[in-house]
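Worked example

This section walks through a single chain of length 245. The input is the sequence exactly as stored; nothing has been trimmed or padded.
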Amino acid sequence: MKVGLFIPCYINQLYPKVGIATLELLEKLGVEVYYPTGQTCCGQPLGNSGYEEDAKGACQVFVENFKEYDYIVGPSGSCIHHIKEHFDILEQTDAVINVRNNSYELCEFIVKVLGKTNLGASFPHKVGLHKSCHGLRGLKLGSCSERMDDYYSTEEALLKEVKGLELMSLTRKDECCGFGGTFSVFEEAISVKMGKDRIQDHLDNGVEVITGADHSCLMHLDGLLNRNNHPLRVMHIAEILNHSI
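Given that input, the structure is written out below as tokens.
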């Protein structure tokens, strides 16, 4: 299979180590990975702000860059959700439909497409998992507490196989962190309070490292951690799954 690696713009600019970890992890799993150098933003920020018409150009550029691949894989649940659910603003050509149907968040691709959970990683720390709203309720990467479904979690299935990692139980394990993209700009006070609540839950349960599959949420939490001098750090799940000692 030919996999097109999609690295969201904020990860490319601010967290390049996450992109590198994603690439290395896929290569360790024997995946033939390609990186289209012409890729840009998927258009999510404009779409989330109500400017869908202005986002069409970015969406179309994305399709042109990734239309030749069997799968498109990226380390961001929110961006992948945008591609799958909001590229309906484009004319639904074969290329657009294929890109939408074959785009996968990293953990989802590893578990559902490759059929793997034990990746040979080692990470001897107490870890708290933040389940982002787009990944959980949009991509269905796990069951939600408000529904009476059988419990499952794609991310937990991977983390539980990491040697030495202790996955800590949280009191409100699928509550929003308050980031919400531009929500954190226009509703700053609410966003900050929600983020602080999530951090306190991790602190109360003895977490050392907060992880997740969406670094936009982790970026929000990391900013609050740094400003309040909390003894916690954040790591994208790709960095943990790629970690060995």
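What to look for: The chain has a mean pLDDT of 94.
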